[in-house]
Amino acid sequence: MKLRISYPLLLVLIVGCFVACNSSGDKNEKISTDLVKNPNTASGVINSGQLPAMKFEETEHDFGKLIQGETVSYEFQFTNSGKSDLIIVDVSTSCGCTVPSFPKTPIHSGDKGVIKVTYNSSGKHGFQSKNILVVANTQPNTTLLRIKAQVVSPNSEK
Description:
Helix content: under 10%
CATH architecture of the domain at 50-152: Sandwich
Order of helices and strands: HEEEEEEEE
Strand content: 35-45%
CATH topology of the domain at 50-152: Immunoglobulin-like
Number of strands: 8
């Protein structure tokens, strides 16, 4: 006796397995959708008056000269100058040598926050410029930060 399974049924079973395996049991990391407000409308009219806004003290930092292999950090400080809670969704970098850390909880209106960026100059030489892209519930939803440095070999002057 041969068992026959239709291809659509097999596909549904496989997809169901993947969805079930990717479910996270940790409910603490999820943010309520009540905090996320999308101001975009079909009419194109945007009411940004009630949105959060990230105001950075500076968006670029120059580490100056670094000896190859040094690891340095910088904290980009910002304020939520908007009228609702700021939620940073993601912070990504242009290189694996640059590692960000950022607040995972909402930042209330008027509160301050920090995005810390750690740069490892191992294997780098010459002028380096790295981008850090911050995605948040702001309008526009992305902010670009930048770090730069002049990496010199250990044998040359700092």
